[in-house]
């Protein structure tokens, strides 16, 4: 069972999206930071990085400019924090669903299904992550490297339980992530003509046989 | 055999990257247009769309500004033409290799292997296609829709020959394209630590069993 496999590396909780010095220390501060990050997602998702502005973010968030600068020094810094935050949101949305899997292959089905559901509610994630390729290449790479690491960890746990072929490794993890990203683009962002469960079942059927021991 | 399946829809040749009125009518004109498009790939690949310029393109190409305007009206237009041209280059690079496949699944192996080889020689393709998402969404969608169509056609041909499961369809094609795009990013653009043939063989092994009838 995937449940007690430790397959998802989320137990340690999300890293703070801001630098150490600016981590909010109160519940109220954490709520303000959350509001600013959500406003940044809306601002950059709608206008893109170059057209988006700090004042656009604070207006959407309903906070004073000073509150923004309590947490971030610049537009670049809030954008980087937003990419890390979105990576963390995907991970935290997917992880509890994956724990319900009946086996290692089923974990990938639930991972894709819950990712598709997340994407439909946060369509701006594609624009933001994709723009990171141009605005901050390191954030872009970290986002995908982190996702691949989580898939590799799940595959290794499934292989250790004899549910997945023993040679499943990095290439397989990148292949699975690529499937998920483009199925998310097509069936999450562009058109919702199939249910997430249908898309995930069809894709998982490839893996069910393709990754069998 | 994939060879006589008509599985790749390339026999009609690439569409002209420019609008009808501006298609070169002489061999010399075709060479000039090719030179301009290659220079545009270098310019936009290195500087991005916003920093890239028409004068940067003509300097790289070693052609006069007037030659540029013989074929394109604007920076937007040459960028759109470049995206179409790169889609066509990928297709024309992959198609003859796929014809050597021993069956429908092997066609996907050769498709990925030749795509990885193409990417290593044209690393700028990722930046250009990805930037199209922001510069010209229609070109971006057309690029991926075209790639998916070619995969679907190959899967259908393989299914008709009894080599691929009969229900292989759109979801499977998007899954395969996503695999290819991200394996190309990781093993083509970012790092060349595995040979294209090794990456393609590992990924194809999933499909060999996963798409069997």
TrEMBL record, chains A, B:
<dbReference type="InterPro" id="IPR009057">
    <property type="entry name" value="Homeodomain-like_sf"/>
</dbReference>
<dbReference type="GO" id="GO:0003700">
    <property type="term" value="F:DNA-binding transcription factor activity"/>
</dbReference>
<feature type="region of interest" description="Disordered">
    <location>
        <begin position="1"/>
        <end position="30"/>
    </location>
</feature>
<dbReference type="InterPro" id="IPR036271">
    <property type="entry name" value="Tet_transcr_reg_TetR-rel_C_sf"/>
</dbReference>
<keyword id="KW-0238">DNA-binding</keyword>
<dbReference type="Pfam" id="PF00440">
    <property type="entry name" value="TetR_N"/>
</dbReference>
<protein>
    <recommendedName>
        <fullName>HTH tetR-type domain-containing protein</fullName>
    </recommendedName>
</protein>
<keyword id="KW-0804">Transcription</keyword>
<feature type="DNA-binding region" description="H-T-H motif">
    <location>
        <begin position="53"/>
        <end position="72"/>
    </location>
</feature>
<dbReference type="GO" id="GO:0000976">
    <property type="term" value="F:transcription cis-regulatory region binding"/>
</dbReference>
<feature type="domain" description="HTH tetR-type">
    <location>
        <begin position="30"/>
        <end position="90"/>
    </location>
</feature>
<dbReference type="InterPro" id="IPR001647">
    <property type="entry name" value="HTH_TetR"/>
</dbReference>
<keyword id="KW-0805">Transcription regulation</keyword>
<dbReference type="InterPro" id="IPR023772">
    <property type="entry name" value="DNA-bd_HTH_TetR-type_CS"/>
</dbReference>
<dbReference type="InterPro" id="IPR050109">
    <property type="entry name" value="HTH-type_TetR-like_transc_reg"/>
</dbReference>
